[in-house]
Structure formats: structure tokens, C-alpha cells
Specification:
Shape: globular
Number of helices: 20
Distance between the termini: 36 Å
Largest sheet: 20 strands, antiparallel
Helix content: 40-55%
């Protein structure tokens, strides 16, 4: 008996879910497949309320910007217009809008060669009465006359207005709780055709489009779907001559199957401290065909689907962090193709190349060094641990993966007795960086009467850290280990990075399986840390303003205004991922608040 009840409940749940999906698909089934752009709002009323109750809305309403909006005289005009609309509607404006647009809304834009774009609006209202009420109010405000017409036995209405040409008279048709508004009569008639013929081709039968729709995330506020094929002529016209350098852009565009832009609102409960984090995310997803893609692109895809970014090495107090991947083999191929032969290189380029070889103890930058770099890189800056408000506010570090086994120097045959062995990659990099550090210290010493910059070093488990101090306001440092090349503004950053790396176990490392849509490029900016820096290093920012001849009062005003902007969100993240069928980019803002009951 219990099993039978559970089966019934599961069937009902699936039925409710399917009905929810069918409402969207019913609207898409009424749109012709040649739509250039399709905008979709799902459950707009509920999502609008969620957005109003979000932490972002609360912070915006508490900001000076919102106060400026409230004091704007034009707001009074909008208030009067709202009152006039409510008098015609005989109900609150918000209630009327939600009853009409609160469910599913689809706006399809069409474009034909030599003509202006036109649209078809489809919306699912709460009831048929809500549609009739809205049309009646529209007629009272606009003063048009409704003329009934017929197509294939279905009655539709043209909204004619004196002095307005027939080409500019919108046409509407109502199917129970669904209202369709079109700019052109032909487009509305095609909607009626699709309504009568369920087997006809429409957006709902277009596989790339439905793949994008069914993959929509929870909390989607609005989605914009773009059909690349409808823009092929525009791209071809932009590229022009087949010999144009932008021809590769047209080739890449021809592989794009579908383009989707989304705005998503999500809420995450952070237990056990009962905090919630609201996130507004803007996504761009491009589905593409990978058949026949060039080898250099396949190299990037191979890395993106197997290698993980070292995001767990980003410090908790990072103000800004950037991380990404590059295919050194693909870069080497592209550089080789673009470089002329050695004899055709400019004199200055040949000199720089030979100087680089000398600094690298004879290793070639392209043949020996580049294949051993990457694929991952990481850069971040953190607040300086100083109590002096006038000090420079941040320190920075750049880390690059090293793969000595990929260097030609590591695979050379044993040297003959009496000959000089080929240097290792680590020795070559250490020589080049140490030379640069010496030059930096010498340049500093030649320009200052203060303390003389000297070079220092410290041995750690992963290698040796070398730095110069003081050089202006910094202590530039570097370290070359078996796995990383580090360059930083202080030796402490290098030491902390290497200590974190050596403490990690293999199970925590990049050997873990990479999940789908895991980023291959990543940016992070923490406004909470930025606001702390504005407060703790205020004297430094004021000093910088004086150097730019900005009065202290104006500088203080700008700092206060910047702090107000930074209060609107806590973190900003950008990520991009790549697979053999999809490119995805995402920009998100998050704001944390006490948990909501």
C-alpha cells in the first residue's frame, strides 16, 4: 500500500513538472523557427518578488543612490502616471501587471533582408479575464478601434487608430489565457497556422533551441536566445572580402549552433551560521560544433577538460585574484607560424632574442622555455600586514606552473667527458631572474640617498627564495621550485605559497577528476577587502590624490562615494569554461546577510 501511494505521489510530481515545462513549450510552439532573437521570462511575478526581497535590493534601498532617486522630481510625474493607470484599470497597477505578465512571457524578434525588425509578443496571463481587462484599458488610453478579422476560421483583431497607417496597426489574437501581439498581420497569421498545425516546424522543434531552454538553471529571471543563422548575412557583410583577416571570425561564427544569455538570481544557505548569500549571475553560453576544428583549438579544449585551476591556493584575504590556463604547445605553433625566419627578423628583435638566450644560460625561449611553462597560472594581491596608514596598501604574487620534463634541456643525451652539460630549466630561470633582481637593486641605489638595497635569500623546503630590500616601497622576490615559478612583491608571499603547496596531499591536488563547467579562466574581486583597505590606508589614498592635485575634501568625497558603491555587493566573480561543444562565461555578484526565515 505504501509503495502504491509513493508511486502515485511521484507520478503527480512528474505531472506537475511536465505541465510547467509544457506551458513554456506551448508558447515556443507558436513562434516560427526563423526568429532572430527570443526573450523568455518565466514566473516573472514570483521572480520579481524574490528580487525585491534579496540582499541586493535591501542594500540598494539603503544606499545614497536610492535616496537621490527618491528625491528626483521626475519621480512625482511617474507617481501621477501610475495613479492615472490605476484609475483606468480600477485595480493596483502591480496587481494588473502581475496578472498579465506574471507567468510566461516570450518576445520573438524577426528580421528580413531590406526591412526593419518586427516582433511577436506572447504572454500567458492568470486568466482570460485579465487579458480582456488589459486590452480594454489599452483601448481607453490609446483610443484605437478594434476591427475583427479572420484567418483559417480563427478571429483576430486589428487595433486601428485614426491617422495611423495599416502597417503600424498592431494585431492581436487570444487563445484562452494566452495573448499574442504582433506588429505585422502576416506574423500573427503564422502564429495561428502553428496553433492549428501542431506538427509544423517552430522553435519548439528546433533542437539547439530546446537544448538551451531545458538546460535553464533554477532562479532564471530572463533568458535571451539568439539564432546565429539569422545573423549569418550580417557577419558575412561585416567580414567583407574573403581575404580579410577577420575571415577567421566568420569561420568561428559558422560553428556556433546557438547563443544564450541569462540573468539568474540564486540564494544559498550557508549553514551552520544561518547566513544566506544572494547571487546575481549573468551567463553567456555558446553551443558550437567541434567537427573539423583546428589542432591548436583542440589543444586548448584538451587542457580545459582535464586540468584544474589552482583556485584552492587563493588566500581568504585576497583582494583580487586571477587564474587561467594556456596551451604552451598551441602558443608555440602560433608563434612559429607568425615569426619570419631568423635572417628576416629585425635587428632589435634578434638582439633581444640573443640577450634572452644569454640570460637563460643558452636555452632558447621558444624551443626550451615555452613548452615547460603552464598550463596553469595564478595571480593575486592581498592587503599588506602593516599598521601604517600611509604605506602602500597591497602585496601581489604571480605563480606559474613549471614542467621541467617538457624542456628540451631535460631530454638531451648524456654529455661527452670534457664538455659543458646543458643547464637545467631551474638554473636558467634562476640566472635570468637573479640578474634582473641585481639590476633592479642597482638602479634603485643609483637614484636614492636612503638605505642601500641588498640581495638576500632564504632556503625553504621547496627551494630558495631570493629578494632585494628595500626597492622603493617594495621587496621584490622570486622563487623557482620543481613545480612553480613565483614572482612577488615580498618574500613572505612566496614562502606562504610554497608552504601551502607542500602541505597539500595528493588527494587534494589536481589529480581529482575535473567536473563539467569547471572554469578555465577565473577572476575574483572582493569588495569587502577593498573597503577595509580604503579605511586602513586612507592616508595613502589622500597622498595619492594630493599628487594628482585633488583637494582633500574632494578626495574624501570620492572615497566615501566609492565605499558606497562597494557596499552593494561583497564579491564579484568572472569565470569561463570550455568543452568540446560549449563555451560558457559567467559574471556574478554576491551579497551575504543573516539567514531569512
Amino acid at each position: 500500500m505504501l509503495r502504491a501511494n509513493l508511486t502515485i505521489l511521484a507520478t503527480l510530481a512528474v505531472s506537475v513538472l511536465c505541465q510547467s515545462l509544457l506551458r513554456s513549450e506551448d508558447l515556443f510552439r507558436l513562434v516560427q523557427p526563423d526568429a532572430m532573437v527570443c526573450v523568455h521570462l518565466s514566473e516573472a511575478a514570483e521572480n520579481g518578488r524574490r528580487l525585491e526581497q534579496s540582499e541586493f535590493a535591501k542594500r540598494l534601498q539603503a544606499s545614497p543612490f536610492w535616496a537621490d532617486i527618491a528625491d528626483n522630481p521626475q519621480l512625482a510625474d511617474l507617481t501621477h502616471a501610475k495613479a492615472a493607470l490605476e484609475a483606468v484599470l480600477q485595480r493596483p497597477l502591480r496587481e494588473a501587471v502581475e496578472s498579465l505578465f506574471g507567468q510566461n512571457v516570450v518576445l520573438a524578434v524577426f528580421a528580413s533582408p531590406g526591412s526593419n525588425p518586427n516582433f511577436v509578443l506572447l504572454l500567458e496571463a492568470d486568466s482570460a479575464a485579465a487579458i480582456e481587462s488589459a486590452v480594454t484599458a489599452w483601448q481607453a488610453l490609446d483610443g484605437f478601434q478594434q476591427v475583427e478579422l479572420e484567418h483559417r476560421g480563427v478571429t483576430y483583431r486589428s487595433l486601428k487608430k485614426p491617422g495611423r497607417s495599416d502597417d503600424h496597426n498592431p494585431v492581436i489574437v487570444q487563445f484562452d489565457r494566452v495573448l499574442v501581439v504582433a506588429q505585422k498581420t502576416e506574423r500573427l497569421q503564422r502564429v495561428i497556422d502553428l496553433r492549428l498545425d501542431a506538427s509544423a516546424d517552430s522553435l519548439a522543434t528546433l533542437e539547439p533551441f530546446m537544448d538551451a531552454v531545458t538546460a535553464r538553471p533554477e532562479g532564471e529571471l530572463v533568458a535571451v536566445h539568439v539564432n546565429p543563422r539569422s545573423l549569418d548575412s550580417a557577419v558575412t557583410s561585416f567580414v567583407g572580402n574573403p581575404q580579410n583577416r577577420l575571415r577567421s571570425l566568420a569561420n568561428a561564427w559558422s560553428r556556433c549552433r546557438w547563443l544564450t544569455l541569462r540573468l539568474v538570481l540564486g540564494t544559498d544557505l550557508q549553514s551552520p551560521d544561518e547566513m544566506t548569500s544572494d547571487e546575481v549571475r549573468f551567463e553567456v553560453i555558446a553551443d558550437y560544433g567541434s567537427q573539423g576544428t583546428p589542432d591548436w583549438w583542440n589543444g586548448w579544449v584538451g587542457l580545459a577538460t582535464t586540468q584544474r585551476l589552482p583556485l584552492n591556493r587563493i588566500p581568504q584575504n585576497a583582494l583580487l585574484a586571477l587564474s587561467g590556463q594556456f596551451s604552451s604547445n598551441s602558443l608555440q605553433t602560433l608563434i612559429r607560424k607568425s615569426l619570419p625566419s631568423d635572417g628576416e627578423l629585425p635587428v632589435d628583435a634578434r638582439r633581444v632574442w640573443r640577450v634572452s638566450q644569454g640570460l637563460l644560460l643558452g636555452l632558447d625561449p621558444l624551443t626550451d622555455l615555452l613548452p615547460a611553462l603552464g598550463p596553469n597560472w595564478l595571480a593575486y594581491c592581498v592587503p599588506r600586514p602593516t599598521a601604517e596608514s600611509s604605506d602602500f596598501p597591497v602585496d601581489a604574487l604571480i605563480a606559474l606552473d613549471l614542467r621541467p620534463e617538457e624542456s628540451n634541456a631535460s631530454s638531451t643525451p648524456p654529455v661527452e667527458p670534457g664538455t659543458v652539460p646543458q643547464p637545467s630549466l631551474q638554473d636558467a630561470l634562476d640566472n635570468a631572474l637573479l640578474t634582473g633582481l641585481n639590476l633592479l637593486a642597482a638602479e634603485h641605489n643609483s637614484r636614492t640617498t636612503g638605505p642601500v638595497a641588498v640581495l638576500r635569500h632564504k632556503a625553504v623546503a621547496e627551494g630558495t627564495i631570493r629578494w632585494a630590500e628595500p626597492v622603493s616601497r617594495f621587496r621584490p622576490a622570486y622563487a623557482v621550485s620543481n613545480n612553480f615559478l613565483l614572482v612577488a612583491s615580498s618574500p613572505e608571499l612566496c614562502e606562504r605559497f610554497l608552504a601551502t603547496t607542500s602541505a597539500r596531499t595528493k588527494s587534494q591536488s589536481d589529480s581529482e577528476e575535473k567536473s563539467a563547467n569547471e572554469p578555465t579562466q577565473y577572476w575574483l574581486a572582493r569588495s569587502t577587502i577593498a573597503r577595509q583597505i580604503l579605511k586602513s590606508h586612507r592616508d595613502w589614498f589622500l597622498w595619492q590624490a594630493r599628487r594628482d592635485r585633488v583637494p582633500d575634501a574632494e578626495a574624501s568625497r570620492r572615497l566615501t562615494e566609492l565605499d558606497s558603491v562597494l557596499k552593494l555587493a561583497d564579491d564579484a566573480e568572472f569565470s569561463a569554461s570550455l568543452s568540446d561543444s560549449q563555451i560558457r562565461a559567467s559574471l556574478s555578484l554576491s551579497a551575504t546577510s543573516p539567514g531569512r526565515k
